[in-house]
Amino acid sequence: MRKSFDKHWYAWAMVLPTVIVLGVLVFYPLVRGVLQSFTNLNESNQRDEICTKVLGGAETCEPNPDAAQFVGLDNYVDILTGAQGDFWLQFVNTLVWTVACVAFHFGLGLGLAVMLNREFRFRGFYRVALILPWAVPSFVAAFAWRFIFDERFGVINGALRAIGLDPVSWFEQRWTSLFTAIVANVWLGVPFMMVALLGGLQSINGDLYEAAEIDGASSWQRFVNITLPGLRPVSSTVILLGTIWTFNMFPIIFFVTRGQPAGETEILVTGAYRAAFEGIRDYSLAATYGVLILSILVVYASVYRRMLAKQGEVF
């Protein structure tokens, strides 16, 4: 370390501001959150002292007998056993939500990327048009899709009425409600996947396709044996990023389904939010949610990386 610092001191000097910013904005809150998860901190016991004003304007302070205390693993036990919150319901919802969204992101993104990688008229226009959803803020898109699926005034139910079908109460059933959020998130997330995969397609050597075509390979054979292997370095990265982003995607669930019906479409990040900001604000419970979410994603990333390593991919 010392040898590296003496030889490359200028590089360390350039990295230092980034390290300081990361330490203040990421590592300190992370450590603080982990420590809070082992306490019973909430808005009623967050002060160590109780101060009161007396006649004359003076202020007297006394130790708070109900101040937050260290409780060990109690928060984790309460969450995992269902004593607090609906962790397992939210966990299942999160898995369904993440798998469905990432699968549609990748499938639709790949199809659009393959299409846009070919020469045809107005290709530039279609590229711009398909990227537009990516530029829309997620909360704006969430409000729009909430209106689209509205039971009384929504566009979809209006179309159903127009063709003589009964309107659907999208937010009164768990799976139909979750379906609306998945549709909204797929609309938002496909452009990123499309752009990333399109860049990967354009990096594949065209001579491989020409050689395969001369050898009599069909379009499907060229896709399976050249396109998919050639996209593997890109696809492995975007799938990992897409999984992490979707797992933590807060606005869509919060603004589209609003947890309806009766909290049955909550995911882990919205559960953490409600613990921290609704009712008696339970900061320790929210911190415990955060640690569990981080742990799940770290385990997933580690397993995913090992799977890629076994396939010969470097990540």
UniProtKB/TrEMBL annotation:
InterPro entries: ABC_transporter_permease, MetI-like, MetI-like_sf. Belongs to the binding-protein-dependent transport system permease family. Gene3D superfamilies: MetI-like. This is Sugar ABC transporter permease. It is a multi-pass membrane protein. It is found in: Cell membrane. The keyword Ion transport does not apply. It comes from Nocardioides pinisoli. Keywords: Cell membrane, Membrane, Transmembrane, Transmembrane helix, Transport. PANTHER family: ABC TRANSPORTER PERMEASE PROTEIN, INNER MEMBRANE ABC TRANSPORTER PERMEASE PROTEIN YCJO. The chain crosses the membrane at residues 9-31, 95-116, 128-148, 175-198, 238-256, 283-303. Residues 91-304 form the ABC transmembrane type-1 domain.
